[in-house]
Structure formats: structure tokens, C-alpha cells
Amino acid sequence: MAKIQMTTPLVEMDGDEMTRVIWKMLKDKLILPFVDLKTEYYDLGLEKRNETDDRITVESAEAAKKYGVAVKCATITPNAARVEEYNLKEMWKSPNGTIRAILDGTVFRAPILVKGITPYLPTWTKPICIARHAYGDVYKNTEMTVEKGSKAELCVTDKDGNEKRQTIFDFEKSGGIIQGIHNLESSIASFARACFNYALDQKLDLWFATKDTISKTYDHTFKDIFAEIFENEYKEKFEQAGITYFYTLIDDAVARVIRSSGGYIWACKNYDGDVMSDMIATAFGSLAMMTSVLVSPDGNFEYEAAHGTVQRHFYKYLKGEETSTNSVATIFAWSGALRKRGELDGIGELVDFAAKLEKATIDTIESGIMTGDLYLLSSLPEKQKVNTEEFLDAVHDRLAEIV
Questions:
Q1: Residue 43: phi, psi to the nearest 5?
Q2: Could you tell me if 130 and 294 are in contact, meaning their C-beta atoms sit under 8 angstroms apart?
Q3: CB 82: neighbour CB atoms within 10 A?
Q4: Sign of dihedral through CA atoms 255, 373, 106, 93?
Q5: Distance CA 393, CA 403 (A)
Q6: For the packed helices 328-345 and 348-366, what is the interaxial angle rounded to 10 degrees?
Q7: I need a surface site. Which of 56, 75, 173, 283 has the fewest CB within 10 A?
Q8: Comparing C-alpha atoms, which of 29, 31, 61, 32 is closest to residue 44?
Q9: For residue 147, what are the contacts with CB-CB under 8 A and spacing of at least 6?
């Protein structure tokens, strides 16, 4: 059969360890036989990042802004042990963090549902997509220990040198700790627009929550910016799309989420999103069964697997031992990127192929063929554990029947 033609390339960001191995297998078995794939390739493997002083990560992000759609393999964020293992020049920053900052993006993560794997909350029959504001708060904090007898103050100096001071606490009777956090109105506005745009793109209701009753300036600013942008820019669009924007307090949101059936986007501040995304992933079954897409407010998309590089399996692979690594999140990263490329370029065949790739993957698992992690979770009466490559082969066979 004739391969599906592409007009605009995807930005392809290769990665590290076992996910890098899967990346090539996946392309060879599930993409290249069916699509005349066009990509602008960037090797974000740790060795190449070290060789280029991490310039290649910046270049890949700039390319994502140029072409609008990228797909990324999982990458190593080095710690001290990795610096020694790879003989690095320095402890390079997280590629995800670098790309996120350049694209000014928001991360959206949602579970992939399959029969046989029941969420820990069985009422969750539809995915819950977490949108995490990935800037500021405790992740860019300043912390200090405070001796007994000290007084801590918040001091802001304006552009003319005038100071405004407010007492945080008088540590007269005991020593303690203090923490300073910040955020930017521009970043919050970008977060809001990314959430509203993605809700329209996915045709899903959007929930947002803070603790504005307690944090009457910091959290309330988030609430106000979201409300203002919605009223001025998105209210009519939401009404036309038949979806809603809903704001509530974070504790009320948690209670509502637990009682819900799913099927919406839940926008969270940075810390809330960090915690709740792992809670959602675990409650639905597995981090390897999560989609993840970085969306910028000006309409750029970067799709990736939500998990790490699967280091333990990679070391087994290097020894020639068999692995059974779940490739579903990486498959869905590719399908998401191909679908979006097809939508932007008006290539219906590419959009259709992405849907068929996802269907073939889910049908394979629901037929009982799955990797070891899912084998332990699945309640299907007849199931078969297969290795990494065998699973991709099984998906290929199903895909070939329907393409």
C-alpha cells in the first residue's frame, strides 16, 4: 500500500536508555511501514547533550516553536551518580524543564483506559486530565532556618528604591524556618490560556482550584486572572463548544474529583499538579499508561511519555537479558503528535492513522497480550505476558489489518 504522505515535519527528540531502544523499535514497526515520516531530528541523549553543552536541547525547543508539533522520548535528568557514570562536564538541567520554559508551556496528563485494568475508584469511567502550572511556587523558592530571637520580614523594594515591609513572624520563643515563593502574572496568564485552549481542543470541561479563602493575595491572583481571561476571551467560545469552566476551592475540588466519573481537565497550581498527577496515574493503574502533552499558549504542542527512561530494564537489555517494558505511553506520544500534525496540515489520513494506532494498541492489551507490568494489574481471565519487542510486533499485526 502507498504510505501516508506528510507535508510538514515533526520535531523528533530522541532520548535515553530503554526508552531510546523502544523509540527505534516503535518507529521501525509501527510508523515507518505506514507513514512517509518527515521529522527534524534532535538527539537529546545525555551524551549528545554533554557534547553540545546542552545547546541541542535549546535548539530542539526552538524547532518545536517553528514547526508547532514535537514528539519527545524520555530523557535522563542527571544527578551526581549520572555525572560520574557518563563523565559529564556538569550536572545538566532537566530537558523537560528547559523545553517547558522556552515554549512557556503547560503539561497535560491523562490516563489511557483499557478493559481488565480497573481504577482503584471504579466510578472513574472516563479519564481525568491533569493540567499542571509548571512555574514558580516551592520549585523556585528561597528557604532559611531562623534562630530563636529573630524576626522575619517580607521586604519588597520598588523601582524607585522605596521599601515595603511586612512581618512574617517573630521567632521570640523558638527558632524555626521560613520560605519565600513567587509567581508571575504573565506566567499565570499563559497557564490560563493554555488550559482554556486545550479544553476547547479536547472539547472537555475545565476545572480550576486554589485556596483563595486563605491565601487572599497569592492564590486569589490565580483565581482573578483565570476569571478575567475567561470572561474576556473564552466564555463565548466555551458556550459554542458546549463545555464549561468551573472554579472551586482545592479541598472541594478533591472531594468532587473522588465522587466524579471523570471526563474533564483539572487545572492545578504547580505543587498541587505535581502531587495530583501522580495520584491520578496510580489510581488509574500505571504511569506507563498516561498521555502527556506540553501545550504553549500560542499553540505549540510537544508530546512525550510521562515516565522515565526505565534504567533497570536498560541494564538488563545491555546484558542480553529479556525485558518486558511497557511502550504504550511512547506509542501514544507518537500517535498524539501525528494526529496534531495531521489536524494542522489538513491531512485526514494521518489523523485516521493515529486513531488506528491507538486502537491497535488498546485492542492488543484487551485481547490479553501485554507486558509484565500490566500482566500483574489485569483482571482478564486469559492473559499472556510478552517481552518488549513481542508486544510491539503484536500491535503491528493488528495495525496492519486495519490500516
A1: -90, 105
A2: no
A3: 16
A4: positive
A5: 15
A6: 160
A7: 173
A8: 61
A9: 171, 175
Model pLDDT for residues 123-157, shown as the tens digit of each residue: 999 999 999 997 888 888 899 999 999 999 999 99
pTM listed for this prediction: 0.89
What gap in Å lies between CA 152 and CA 50, rounded to an integer? 42
Q: Collapsing DSSP states into helix, strand and coil, what is residue 164? A: strand
For 26, 36, 313, 386, 393, the CA distances from 361, given in Å and listed in that order, are 12, 21, 21, 14, 11
pLDDT in tens, 240-296: 999 999 999 999 999 999 999 999 999 999 889 988 988 998 899 877 899 999 998
Amino acid present at 285: G
What are phi and psi for residue 339, nearest 5 degrees? -60, -45
User: 377 CB contacts (<8 Å, ≥6 apart)?
Assistant: 117, 285, 286
**Segments of 63-160 assigned E as strands:** 69-72, 106-111, 128-132, 142-146, 150-157
Task: Find all residues with CB under 8 Å of 227, minimum gap 6, and list them.
Answer: 247
Residue with cell 507486558: 371
- Helix, strand, coil share (%) of the chain residues, nearest 5: 45, 20, 30
Q: How far out from the chain centre does Cα 213 lie?
A: 29
Give whole-number Cα distances, 221 to 103, 107, 110, 248, 359, in Å.
Answer: 23, 21, 27, 14, 42
